[in-house]
Automatic annotation (TrEMBL):
Pfam families: Lectin_C. Residues 1-24 are annotated as: Disordered. It comes from Salmo salar (Atlantic salmon). This is CD209 antigen-like protein E isoform X3. Residues 70-111 form a coiled coil. It comes from the Eukaryota. The lineage of its organism: Eukaryota, Metazoa, Chordata, Craniata, Vertebrata. Residues 126-244 form the C-type lectin domain. The keyword Coiled coil applies. Keywords: Coiled coil, Lectin.
């Protein structure tokens, strides 16, 4: 029977949990400490978290750098676009100016050609017009008709300078002034009313004592005063005449 007791005793001891096998206090303490030893997995997780944070920091830094680059690139692009637009506008203005200068040059060249051609035929150039003194005499009406056939007209005197220029031709000739439509209302051949006249002393007198419907005007040469050289005369009288053609 004692053998059974021992057997049971051995069996009971074998069935106790491992933590209870060591009955001494030190052994039990060491066993408990071993039960709470940190797992190696904790360090791995911490390392992974640091890696993730570093990755996020790098991503944020990269994103900020890219955003700043994008802003700078956009500003630079806008500045370049503005400069391009300004240069395009300036180019167009220069092109327009060039075109205008080209037209002006062509106009001047054409004008010089016309002046040269007419001057070779005896015309005289003064202040943007060409003048020609006829070599024959005709009535005022016939004189004007001849002017029109040459794409010109009887001269219209618009200034003191032009009057002096014509005076220096030292001639007696019809000019484009008449009051044949309304007596006393002097009008130029272009329909404008006379504002400044260069009449000789006592003129216009419509013939004075020998009144005879003197409705057309001639310029004549006199030595004393170049701005008092107009005289009204009968339109049917034959005189030389002065053509005028604008250039």
């Amino acid at each position: 029977m004692s053998e059974g007791v021992y057997e049971n005793s051995d069996g009971f001891e074998d069935n106790k949990p491992n933590a209870m096998k060591n009955t001494d206090i030190d052994g039990q303490l060491y066993g408990n400490v071993g039960a709470f030893k940190p797992s190696p997995r904790v360090g791995v997780v911490a390392s992974d978290n640091r890696a993730i944070k570093d990755s996020e920091d790098k991503r944020n830094t990269l994103f900020q750098s890219f955003s700043l680059y994008k802003i700078n690139a956009t500003e630079e692009r806008d500045q370049l676009q503005t400069r391009y637009n300004n240069l395009t506008k300036e180019r167009d203005q220069l092109q327009t100016r060039y075109n205008n200068l080209t037209k002006e040059r062509d106009h001047i060249q054409a004008k010089l050609f016309v002046i040269e051609q007419h001057c070779q035929k005896g015309w005289r150039y003064f202040d943007s017009s060409l003048y020609f003194l006829s070599t024959e005499t005709k009535t005022w009406k016939e004189s004007r008709q001849d002017c029109l056939e040459r794409v010109a007209d009887l001269v219209i005197i618009n200034s003191n300078k032009e009057q002096t220029f014509l005076f220096n031709l030292h001639t007696r000739a019809w000019i484009g002034l008449t009051d044949s439509v309304t007596e006393g209302t002097w009008k130029w051949v272009d329909g404008t009313t006379l504002t400044t006249g260069y009449w000789g002393t006592g003129q216009p007198d419509n013939g004075g004592l020998f009144s005879g419907q003197q409705d057309c005007v001639e310029i004549y040469y006199r030595q004393d005063d170049p701005v008092q050289t107009w005289n009204d005369d009968k339109c049917g009288t034959n005189h030389n005449w002065i053509y005028e053609k604008a250039v």
